[in-house]
């Protein structure tokens, strides 16, 4: 089984499972796509907060390239919702054929999504979700964050079953669906166990904040902490510095469970500093490009495409690393 998991991880392919069904919305006439002309796409990205995000941006840029029949305009929101709303409004004014965006937070999108709908421009969510009515966007291509959190929580519940566990949590960006759903899944998995949650604070998905928040946890709780759940690799990697500076050994004195499975995360796992890593596949570009082409051509698409994620222990990380794509 372990061998099979390793082989699957090495393949690094995004197997996307189809869920639900929705009719595609044809793009606006000036947005390209007719008679082989390039499709104009506006892409609003969250920012550059993590290794996962860099891999996701690269995947989208590769897939929505000129060579593949697109004219893509990229906008980095620097983790700010107001920047994303401004970018989407600018894409509407430009008359793009489709808008692709990774919503930094889950709420507050209704007005701008209605504006895109009124302009007959299809919106494709990639990565995170929104809480708006599904009629306001065409589809979402992303990962199952709740399942990721649940898988991480199951590891902690199984590992500390019957033992004393004092847990701290580094949460992702407050209000993001990635953080919300990972928290829900994790809490579901540890419900009814003796795991004692000492504290849970946001580290905003960055290494710098992961380090600072972990320093605070260590000052407050000292050596009583014996397990850390970091909702992404970067915060876990930042926490490593804080743990070492406190004279503790990561992976031994404090078990560390993270989500993403970037090369840096799997390296920390392989060398024993992390204990378990759940994958969140960022290579969503090809599926997004495929969906955009279909929608602009007026073909129907599903309402949700979910990437197939793995989980890694230390031995599986060592097997996967040489061919890891991100
Ligand atoms: O939305 C996906 C999350 O966003 C990734 O887990 C994290 O690394 C990124 O910042």
Automatic annotation (TrEMBL):
<dbReference type="InterPro" id="IPR025997">
    <property type="entry name" value="SBP_2_dom"/>
</dbReference>
<feature type="signal peptide">
    <location>
        <begin position="1"/>
        <end position="22"/>
    </location>
</feature>
<keyword id="KW-0732">Signal</keyword>
<comment type="similarity">
    <text>Belongs to the bacterial solute-binding protein 2 family.</text>
</comment>
<dbReference type="GO" id="GO:0030246">
    <property type="term" value="F:carbohydrate binding"/>
</dbReference>
<dbReference type="GO" id="GO:0030313">
    <property type="term" value="C:cell envelope"/>
</dbReference>
<dbReference type="Pfam" id="PF13407">
    <property type="entry name" value="Peripla_BP_4"/>
</dbReference>
<protein>
    <submittedName>
        <fullName>LacI family transcriptional regulator</fullName>
    </submittedName>
</protein>
<feature type="domain" description="Periplasmic binding protein">
    <location>
        <begin position="41"/>
        <end position="299"/>
    </location>
</feature>
<dbReference type="InterPro" id="IPR028082">
    <property type="entry name" value="Peripla_BP_I"/>
</dbReference>
């Amino acid at each position: 089984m372990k061998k099979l998991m390793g082989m699957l991880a090495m393949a690094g392919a995004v197997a996307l499972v189809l869920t639900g069904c929705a009719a595609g919305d044809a793009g606006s006439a000036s947005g390209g796509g007719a008679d082989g002309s390039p499709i104009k796409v506006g892409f609003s990205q969250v920012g550059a907060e993590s290794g996962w995000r860099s891999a996701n941006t690269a995947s989208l840029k590769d897939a929505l390239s000129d060579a593949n029949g697109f004219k893509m305009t990229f906008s980095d929101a620097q983790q700010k919702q107001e920047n994303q709303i401004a970018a989407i409004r600018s894409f509407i004014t430009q008359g793009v054929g489709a808008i692709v965006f990774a919503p930094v937070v889950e709420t507050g999108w209704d007005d701008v999504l209605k504006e895109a709908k009124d302009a007959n421009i299809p919106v494709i969510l990639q990565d995170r979700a929104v809480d708006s009515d599904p009629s306001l966007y065409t589809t979402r291509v992303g990962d199952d964050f709740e399942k990721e959190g649940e898988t991480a929580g199951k590891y902690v519940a199984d590992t500390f079953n019957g033992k004393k566990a004092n847990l701290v949590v580094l949460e992702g960006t407050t209000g993001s669906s990635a953080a919300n759903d990972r928290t829900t899944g994790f809490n579901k998995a540890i419900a009814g166990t003796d795991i004692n949650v000492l504290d849970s604070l946001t580290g905003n998905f960055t290494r710098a904040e992961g380090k600072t928040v972990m320093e605070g946890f260590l000052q407050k709780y000292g050596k009583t902490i014996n397990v850390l759940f970091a909702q992404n690799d970067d915060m876990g990697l930042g926490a490593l510095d804080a743990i070492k500076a406190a004279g503790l050994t990561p992976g031994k004195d404090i078990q560390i469970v993270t989500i993403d499975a970037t090369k840096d995360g799997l390296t920390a796992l392989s060398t024993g500093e992390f204990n378990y890593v759940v994958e969140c596949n960022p290579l969503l570009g090809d599926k997004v490009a495929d969906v955009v082409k279909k929608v602009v051509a007026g073909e129907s698409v599903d309402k949700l495409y979910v990437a197939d994620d793995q989980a890694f222990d230390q031995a599986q990380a060592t097997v996967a690393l040489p061919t890891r794509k991100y």
